[in-house]
Amino acid sequence: MNIPTPHISATSADEIAKTVLMPGDPLRAKFIAENFLEDVTQFNETRGMLGFTGYYNGKRVSVMGSGMGIPSSMIYYNELFGGYDVDTIIRIGTAGSMQENIKLHDIVIATSACSESSINDNLFANINFSPTPDFDLLFKTYNKSMELGYTTHCGQVHSSDQFYNNLPKEVFENLRKYGVLCVEMESYGLFMTARKYSKKGLGIFTISDSLIEDVSDSAENREKSYTNMMKLALEVVGE
Asked: What residues does phosphate bind to (predicted)?
């Protein structure tokens, strides 16, 4: 894949670190760069999808928005892995709880993702391929979260194709019964793309609302206040 790519304007792979943290919101990427990183340079603003590279405790790391949903995010996953030779992408996003014990502001680390997305149709014949994150990275992240004292849950997540998705009650209850922890919109695509390129992917989420208790955070909190998740992802960079 030639660089610059159609959606990332960096002219050299050296402008982007080997590990990229990816929130959906480009303003959250800017917030992380401004509040956590030193010696920051901006490598992308194409289509408003801001990307920055800097240092966290001496470790070089990039942060970039992905947009909402699997189709948008997979554009950037493919271009970062395939064009800029990025080794690891850690999704840091928000999610809606689907279990009573998972509360607002808890952290979820995805062990796998299920989805109604058709992105892997025809790739594996009649086999329903189940994409998973990199285990070593997941294990390190969970241990670091315990060390930091965060309330953290590990399990399967649902990567929905639709934000305004009124699941039939039976489907919703079956997802809960079979242990799906929360719903988000991008990790299924990340895990698929990471497997495609033999790279590493991980999904870390802050619970921003609950489908059980009908509570929800403000837009400002979603952009700026989920610092535990941000710090957790930054702490495992390069470990």
From this structure: 24, 28, 47, 91-94
